[in-house]
Every structure is written in structure tokens, then in C-alpha cells.
Amino acid sequence: MGKSSGKEKSPSIASDNLESKQQLSIIDIIGEGQIEGPISGLKSIFLNKTPVQADDGSYNFNGVEVEWTSGTQSQLPLSGFSETQNEIPVSLEVKYKTPIVRTITDPYIDRVRVTVGVSSLYGQTTSGDTYRTDVKLAVQISVGNGWVTKKTVELIDKKTRTQYLTSVILDDLPSTPFNIRVARITPDSNSDLLVNNTVWSSYTEIYDAKLSYPNTALVGLRFDSSQFNGVPSRTYLIRGIRCKIPNNYDPILRTYNGIWLGEFKTEWTNNPAWIVYDILKNNRYGMARRFGQFSVDKFMLYSIAQYCDQLVDDGFGGLEPRFTCNCYITEQSQAYDLINNFFSIFRALPIWDGMQLSAVIDRPGDTVAIYTNANVVDGKFTYSSSAMKDRHTAVRVKYIDPNNGWEPVTEYVADDEAIKRFGLNILDVEAFGCTSRGQAHRTGKWIITTEKYERQTVNFSVGRAGLKHLPGDVIGILDNEYVMSQSGGRIAAAVNNIVTLDRDVKIDKNSYLTYQDVNTKLVKVKVLSQKSSNTLVLEQNVNSDQWSTWILTNINVSLRLFKALAISENDDGTHSITALEHEPKKEAIVDNGAVFAPAKNQSISWGIPPIEGLAVSITPDSDEYQAVLSWTTPRTMNHLEFQVAILRNGNLVSRQNVVEMSVTMSNLDEGKYTASVRGISTEDGRLGDESTVFFTIAAPETPTQLVFASTSNTVTIKPIMPSNVGLGTVFEYYKGTTLDEVRTMKNYLGRTSNKLIDADVQASTTYYYGVIAVNAAGRSGMCTGSAKTADDTVGTAGGIFRIKTADGVFPANNDRATQLFHDVLGMWPSRDTVLIVYSADENNNVTKTETKMYDGAKWIEPALFLDGNLLATGSINGDRLVAYSEIKSPIIRGGSININDRFVVDSNGHLTVTAADELGKFTLKKNCMEFFDEKGFRVARLGVWK
């Protein structure tokens, strides 16, 4: 009978009342000092990429204490960090009968912190109720032959299902060495219903030492470790090293007051010109010791710094400095590479001008000198242009984005018209020290514009009198041969406003004469009339020396501008000049080229990037399968996710959005799948173009047939599939003397992805083969077939063979070489067959040969080459005799033999043999032998002579 009444209740569970709460103290080295410091207090300190204090003033973490030093020589120690600690992990369970002992040996230790606890602590009744319980531990120090308990850890009426740790400090330590022991006072649990395992986590050696770390910027943090799962990552937003800057410069307002006399002050700046000057001139962390007493052109850097501070469009309707530098140098690098990185920020090259380090910067400038055919050596200009493949139509610029958690992002810059004309040619660059999207965009625009408009380089030489500029200066060139007119030369005479030139010229109503006056300044004057073929009347008087350089420009002929890159002195006293084509409008094109549309404090000015390189890989997953989709994009953007759709046999299996450029799909059944991926903006829902890949999860089909190619000592087997293979399909090969033996699969030959060559065969023998297709989803059935090897005496090759081709080049592809042998000679090569591929001219003279030997599976280099001019018509046609082990009955006709001028047979069959020590010579001509001494006198003759 059943119960007529009853009473039930759910188990009671006591609440946990143990929680680990330890104070974590960390000192981080920020870098070299002296730095300016955090930008905005706790808002500039990030724990696990989250600011301690939010922008609205609320706190994301509680109880965080921060102290920092700027890194001066005389700075004081961090006040809250008056000790140095060395934590040693133990991580062992403490049993009642087996206390754990550790030895302290360092005599300089002041205190020891011992961290112990429980892995979990609770009791449970048979009815399922859980309750709180007790456990005790003793921390002891050895004294003499015994142990003295210094601290006791008592957990009374406590419960936790997770690890709980607590620490005790041991002061008044005995002389080292001494032992510390952690002993369990509570007996071990002998029931599964009572869980009270105790652990010794670690001990920490503490040294009372106040260290100031001079010239090192520090940040000290203290916070409750219970807010984190482990030690959090720390990131600091700071203004870095205080540099030497001009004493008339305000680095915040970016203004310069009055005339600079070359004096400096020390303040923070992110102007790259003064950062590189500080790197070059600092004795401690810079290059001053290596640089020695050499100077840096600070006045050139002053000009560059002003150029960097000029305000340009930021792309969002505002203004920003043209160039800034915000970088963190964490790795040692070559000085030259580092200098070039800094100079690249403001588009410059470091140069040595003979007295000091200066810079060539790419910016507009006045023309300082003109050159024509009349004032260069031999009147020659040599031009070279960049290759079309080196001109990029799009650039991906990587920079650090403050609006994206200071993570690297990519700015895509393209010239759509150039792409339509020349195609897409992308260059990937990393903008050093760049944290502005506008600056990154200008970097890409500058690269594209430079390669588009400044394609030509010129080289020419001048005498000492013609050297009138320095590297970095803009010069004008008018090459008469280039413009195909007499438009440049020297002034023969000048009287008032009438000038006589050194050659005849033609003018029009818009002609202008440009010349260098007595002060070497360029003067451009309008031409009023032409008195004679070489005499012009100008709008104003001419103040020029005789033989000064002139150029004549009009609507059809203009001066070409170049920027001097290098000047070198030649042995004959002349100077060689290298200059690059200069486009003065490039700066305006670059600085005014960016327009970004802001949205929710983020910039979205491009379309959703397309999906590239979509691929799939399949692996077994228990009784089902797992597919991994992966892809790339040509650029990245904020708020970008990827929409992934999977269809099986036309039916939707899953659709999901992912952040990463890969996704793993598990529990897939067999079938035909379609996977599509497209980008999607999480801000406004815009979708990018869809990319699709097809794949099948199924065992491969059985090969339809086996194709054989056999010789006397090899059999090549190639399976033919009914459709394209996928999923990494490979083929297993089996062999036997009968089909039944093949089907037992005892003689396994191996796996390949295409075909297999069996070299373990004998001539005139039939062999049977079986092939099974295998992939991640399973195995196909076996396809079988047979092949008979050729007779080793009939129909197969042996010895040395030659084939004449157009180029005399041996085929690089092994199968193509074998097929060539078969197509020309009507047989298959056998082991040790040597094939000479050669070409010849119209007189049948060999122009090129290449030779290889067949080892039964592939063509290899022969073991022996006999080089020489051996040409045997009708026997061996080539300039090289090749052998593997022996040469059987070669026939050599025509020509002569000459071995080191010691053994010579001429074309008439006359033999001359000369002794190695030149002490004698022997000749054989027709019917006569003659012997000669070292002086050439005949000493004997034998035979018939006239």
C-alpha cells in the first residue's frame, strides 16, 4: 500500500562567508625620465583596458591608490612602497601528518609573508544540507631542535566552495638559514561529506629598502585583488619625455614668439622635429656619445618644426598640426633605422652636409639655381623613371587610433582614377608615431601623389663654379634636348635692358627671360622685343655678369623643377648631382585631400571592406564534422562585424555575427554546403559585398579508372576521379601479383595527392594495383587495374640520348621531361638513361645543352660530366660528353684534341706530346716520329721522311 501522508523539504544550504581579500601592490617602470606625467589623473590609468575613473567622474574600480614619479635624478622613493618583495610559490596541500617545510637562506631578509588557505571549506549531511565548519593551521619557525608556532590561522564556522587565501607576517626572524613550517592542526577529513583541504600557496621574502630609481619614471599601484581574476594588465596614458625645445616655443599652443637665438628650455612636446633633436643630443638615452662633437643643424630643425606645427584640415571639419609624434620606444634598434623612422614622420631624409647633420624635407621651396646644357659637364642630363609596377594606386596605412582603445587600425587611401587606368596596386605601410587618422590619410595620399607626379630622376655633373645649391634645395632645369628648342644658355653681353645671348632664339608675345644676377638671385623679366636672332630687349635693365646662365620660357616651354637629393665630388674636381622631379602643388593636394564624416564620435568615410581569401578546412568531430571558415579584409574599420550564413543542401543551418575573421562550426552532418560571409557595420547596419565558398562533407567518390604509364623498371599510376576533389583528398595505393592480393590491402605503397611511381618492379611482368580515395569524411571504394612492365631489351631506352629543342633548356617539370622523351623517341626512359637537350644554329653548331639522368622515378643531375668541345656528327651531337658509369663505343669525328697544351692532336691527325717540365717534346706526323730536347733541337728521328 502507498503512503497516506508525508512531508518533504528541499536541502538547506548555508551561505558562503569566506572571501579572499588581498592587497595587490605593483610598481611599473614607465620609461626614461623626466616625463610630463599622466594626462588626466585616474582617467589616464587603465586596468584590463578599462579606465579607473570614467569620463563622467564615476569609478570603475574601487580602492585604487596610485603614486608616480617623473624620473628625475634626485627623485624620492615612492612613499607607499618602502619595501622590495620576492614571492616564491609553494602550491602544495598541507596534510595533518605531513607538514610542509621551506628554508630561508638570504641573510638580508627583514620579514616573511606566508600565504595559506583552503581550496574549499564546507560540510554536508546525508540529506543534502550543507553547513559551515572549522579548520586550523599553524605557521612555525625552527628554534634549536624544535618548532615554535609564530602565527595561527583559524577559520571558525566558515564556508566557501572556492579557494580562500589569507596571509600572515613573520617578524623578528632568527639568523639564516632557518626553516618555516606550515602544519595542519585540524585532523584530515575522512569523509566525502566534509571538505576542508588546506593549502600553502606561497611565501614572500620582504626587504625593507627605499629605492628611488633615478632617471626612471615609475607608477605604483595598490588595489584589492578580489576585483580581478589574476593580475590585471596596466596601461597608462601619459605625456612622455620632456625634451629640449626652443625657448620661444609654446608646445601646447604651438606658437613661436620673436626671433630664436638658438637657446633651449626643457618641456614636453610631441613635435617630431624636437623629439628627434632630443634623441640625437641626449647623453643618457640618446646618441650624443656616439655622435661625439658633431653638430646637428638645429636651425633647419627649427624650420621643420614650424612646418610640422602648421594647422591643416583634420578631415572632420577642424584643424590639426600637420605632423605629430606619439611613440613608445620599447625595443633596441639600429641608430640609423631609428633616425630614419623619426625623419619619415615629416617626410624628410637625414643628410650630412659636410659639417653637420641636416635634413632634406619634401615641401615647396624657392628655386635657388638653374641649370641648362651650357653649365653642365658635356651638356648632358641623364634621366631615369620609376617602373610602372612601382607606382601604387592604393595605400593601407596602419596607425594607432585613440578612439579604438589605442589599438592599431588601418586607413585605406586610394586614387580611383589611377585604379581605373592602371589597376589596383596596394602598398602597406606603418605610420611611425602616428595617432591621427588625418595624418595617416595624408601619409597615404603623399605616397600616391609622389609616385604619380614625381616619377623622374635626373643626374648631371657640374664644375665648382656651377655648384650653387645644397641637398634639399629646389633647382630648375631646362634641357634644350628635352624641350627640343634652344631655350637655355649663357649671357654673352648685357647693356641696360638689352641682352645678347650665346645662341639664336625664337620668342613670342609671352616670353620671359630668367637669369642669375650678380647676387646669384634668380630674376625673371618679360621680353619686349627681339633686335636680332640672339639679342633681346627686356622690360627692365639686366644686372648680370657675363656668361651668367639664362633660360627662355613661354607658353610652350617652361622650367622643370627638381629637388636635389645628393651631391658628390668626383676625382676630376667636378660634382655629380642627383635630383628628383618636384611638384610644388603636391602639398596642397595632400593636405586638403581628406574629408571624413563623423558619426557618434567615430569616423565612417568608406564602404564596408570586402571579404578576401575565404577558405574552409574540415576536421572530424566525434561522429560529425567541424568546419573552420577563415578570411581576410583589405582594411579594417571601427564597429565592423561579419555576418556568416551556412546552408546545407540549400537549407539554412546557421546565421551568426562574429568579430574575428574566422568562425568554427561544429556538429555538421554530411551534405553539400554553401558558406557566405559579408561585413556589417554595427553602427548603421550597412552591409558589404558577400563572398561565397562551396564545400561538401562526404566520403570521396570511388575513382573511375586508373591510368598507367610503364617502363621496364617503373609503373606510374594515376587515378581519375568523376568530379573535382576537396577536403584535402589523398589517394592510398596497394599492390599485388593478383587482384585478390590487392583487395587484401597487405602491400601498402603509400599516399599521394595526385599519382604514384612504383620503381620496385621487374621487366616483362604484370602487376595489379588498387587505389582508394581518402578525406576527412571517410574512404571511397577501391578502383583496381593492372599494368605490364616493358621488355628491358625492346621498346625501352638505355644509354645516352639527345633531343634538339628551340632553346636547349631541359624541362623543369619531371613529367613534362618524361613525356618529351616518349614523344620524340617513342619509348619510355629506363633507369640510368641520360638525356641531352640541346639547341643549334643554322650551321648545326651547338649553342646550348642541358643534361640529366633518369633514376627510375625522376630526372637528376648525372654523376659525371666530361667538359670540352666534343662534337661527333652522327654520334653525340653537343658540346658536352656525359656519362654515368661508362661510355660504350663513342665515335669522335672532326676537330682536334688539346689537353693543357701537353697532348695535342690536330685535325690532320698529327700528334705532339710535350713533357711537363719542358725538358723534351715528341711528335708524330705521317710516317715519321721525332724527338726534341729542352732547347728545341732534334735529337732523334724514326720512320720515313723526305
Précis, in short:
9% of the residues lie in helices and 45% in strands. It contains ten helices and 70 strands.
Explain what this protein looks like in three dimensions.
- It is a single chain.
- The chain is mainly beta and 946 residues long.
- The chain contains ten helices and 70 strands.
- The strands form 20 sheets. The protein has a six-stranded mixed beta sheet with strand order 28-34-41-42-33-29. The chain has a six-stranded antiparallel beta barrel with strand order 35-36-39-38-37-40.
- A hairpin with a 2-residue loop joins strand 68 and strand 69 (928-933).
- Helix 1 packs antiparallel against helix 4 (335-345).
- The radius of gyration is 44 Å and the shape is extended.
- The model is unreliable at 1-10, 597-606 and 865-889 (pLDDT under 50).
Draw up the topology in text.
Blueprint: E1 23-32, E2 35-38, E3 45-47, E4 50-51, E5 65-69, E6 84-94, E7 100-104, E8 111-118, E9 122-124, E10 130-131, E11 133-143, E12 146-158, E13 164-170, E14 178-184, E15 194-195, E16 198-207, E17 216-224, E18 234-236, E19 238-246, E20 249-250, E21 255-256, E22 264-268, H1 272-281, H2 288-291, E23 295-296, H3 298-309, E24 311-313, E25 319-321, H4 335-345, E26 348-352, E27 356-361, E28 367-372, E29 382-385, E30 394-401, E31 407-414, H5 416-422, E32 426-430, H6 437-453, E33 456-462, E34 474-478, H7 480-483, E35 488-495, E36 498-501, E37 512-516, E38 522-532, E39 535-538, E40 549-553, E41 560-569, E42 575-581, H8 586-591, E43 598-599, E44 602-603, E45 612-621, E46 624-632, E47 640-648, E48 651-658, E49 662-668, E50 671-681, E51 691-697, E52 705-710, E53 715-720, E54 730-736, H9 739-743, E55 748-752, E56 756-758, E57 766-775, E58 778-788, E59 800-804, H10 814-825, E60 833-840, E61 846-854, E62 859-860, E63 864-867, E64 880-883, E65 897-899, E66 903-905, E67 911-914, E68 920-925, E69 928-933, E70 938-943
Parallel strand pairs: 23-27, 28-34, 30-32, 59-60
Antiparallel strand pairs: 1-17, 2-19, 3-4, 3-18, 5-17, 6-16, 7-14, 8-13, 8-16, 9-10, 9-15, 11-12, 11-14, 19-22, 20-21, 24-25, 26-27, 29-33, 30-31, 33-42, 34-41, 35-36, 35-40, 36-39, 37-38, 37-40, 38-39, 41-42, 43-44, 45-46, 46-49, 47-48, 47-50, 50-51, 52-53, 53-56, 54-55, 54-57, 57-58, 60-61, ...
Helix pairs in contact: 1-3, 1-4
